[in-house]
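Chapter review: from sequence to fold.
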Amino acid sequence: MSILQTVLETSLAKASSHSKKVYGKNPLTVQDVLDLANSRALTLAATAKPSGKPHLSPTDLVAVDERLYLGVDVATARYRNLKKNPAIAVMMADGYKRQAILEGTVDFLDMEGQTAKRVGETQRKKYGWVTDALAEFNPEKAFTWKL
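The token string follows.
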């Protein structure tokens, strides 16, 4: 069983009755989440500023080998925030058709490593560019929904 599958199942099992009612009716499969990550869906990331206040911004997100990766440029507030506090929440939304909210942490990749090269290739195919930093997203909680 994949890490993402475990997170999807555990999150729903531990959810409030309201969240179970909303997200339990028609959740995304692991493959749906991975496909959504590699689609052109709107993807937003929330990080915490050093002051503790939230910072929300559009983000690059791709899936490679059943794992999720964020593109982060070094000059951004998101990069500075994640270097101080690796906690992040990501929302992917394909309008009302498919949605996923994931919470977790990130680990920055060695940009010279093979994983970063493969993720960079996927990022280039999706967006036409590669960010100067890449981070593996480690989901700890996830709620998804599809029409």
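Two observations follow directly from the output. The chain has one domain: 3-146. The radius of gyration is 15 Å.
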